[in-house]
Amino acid sequence: MVIFLDIHLSKLKGIDFLKALKHHPKIIITSANKQYALEGYELEITDYLLKPFSLSRFLKAVNRLQTNAEQSLSPLETKERDYRYFNVNKKRIKIYLNEILYVESLKDYVKIYTNEKSVVTKFQLGELEDFLNARDFLRIHRSFLVSKDKIDSFSSNEVEVAGKAIPIGRSYIDSIKREFEKF
Description:
Blueprint (H helix, E strand, L loop, with lengths): L1 E5 L7 H7 L5 E6 L5 H6 L4 E4 L4 H18 L10 E6 L2 E6 L3 E7 L2 E6 L3 E5 L2 H9 L3 E5 L2 E4 L3 E4 L3 E4 L2 E4 L5 H8 L3
Parallel strand pairs: 1-2, 2-3
Antiparallel strand pairs: 4-5, 6-7, 6-10, 7-8, 9-10, 11-12, 12-13
């Protein structure tokens, strides 16, 4: 979203409006007064157009929006981190999906392991498998799902994730071999 904001609004100043915003969209201030430029840039505006401005100056400001957007996206920020809230002891805990190492079935519950913690929540492993398969998780045993990119090593009967040896179930060996041939 982009807002073209004039400094002099009918009921309040544009700068006061900008200060009142909790989340700042991209802002280009348009004003005949240059005295607010420094304060505007301190509030992280994209550009300050001094009236009267030419079409070329306007286009330069608009192009700056595109340039700033491209520069601000690092590889980690190009998409939001996926997460899900899980019920744990009567509260909902946020787990970032890219932090999950593996998931262990505990009958009607699952234990989700990350580097920082493990949580137990009421969930069927099959339900979680359907949700996580699209996010590069692999069922290797009737009791285990693992994140493919967290696998440190593997053999014909187990995978190692963060120092933990996790068995490969007999009924999963063929599908696992096909998957590991990709590595």
